[in-house]
Amino acid sequence: MIKTLVIPVAVGLLCFVFAAVAMNLIMPHIPLEDSIKGLIKIGVWIAAFTVPSEYLRKKAKQKQANEEDTGQIEKSKLLSKDRLGQTVAVGRNIKVLGIDERILASLPADEVGDLESFIGGAHEVININSDGSMIVSKEWSEDHGCYMGHEVAIFPEDAELIVNN
């Protein structure tokens, strides 16, 4: 809150005061009608407050979002376990023993077949979700020259670490 609200407002107020003093020193020497001078002063005061405070607020929010993203990256470096309790990390190969029914239930038959083709194969873990499921992928070429691919989450009870990699 200090970085996203208090500091930007304080800087905005400081710029506002600086602009007010500068305008009161400069404006009497400019040959314009008083109403136009008044509008110019108001515009400068608003800009002097909002521009720096909004810039600092956005910058603090962006930094906060980046820190949250870093936290998500750290979560992706979690370890998981296979069905035997062996530790699995990103980059290791697992044998897929099954696909969770919750994943298959809402898919059309052709995609179910594609995902079931993972079963029995060795696949590299490319990410680990915070729930411990391991993301693996597979690509293949169709008969008509088209390339296909899928990623799927494999839960620990459906995976076995391949220890010779």
In whole angstroms, the N-to-C terminal distance is 48 Å
Q: Percent range for helical residues?
A: 40-55%
Total strands: the figure is 7
Oligomer: single chain
Order of strands in the sheet with most strands = 6-5-4-3-7
Strand content: 15-25%
User: Segments where pLDDT lies below 50 for 5+ residues?
Assistant: none
Molecular shape: elongated
Order of helices and strands: HHEEEHHEEEE
**Mean pLDDT over all positions:** 85
- Structural class estimated from helices and strands: alpha+beta
Radius of gyration: 30 Å
What's the number of domains? 2
Report the major sheet: 5 strands, antiparallel
Number of helices: 4
Please provide a brief summary of the model.
The protein is of the alpha+beta class and 165 residues long. The protein is built from four helices and seven strands, in the order H-H-E-E-E-H-H-E-E-E-E.
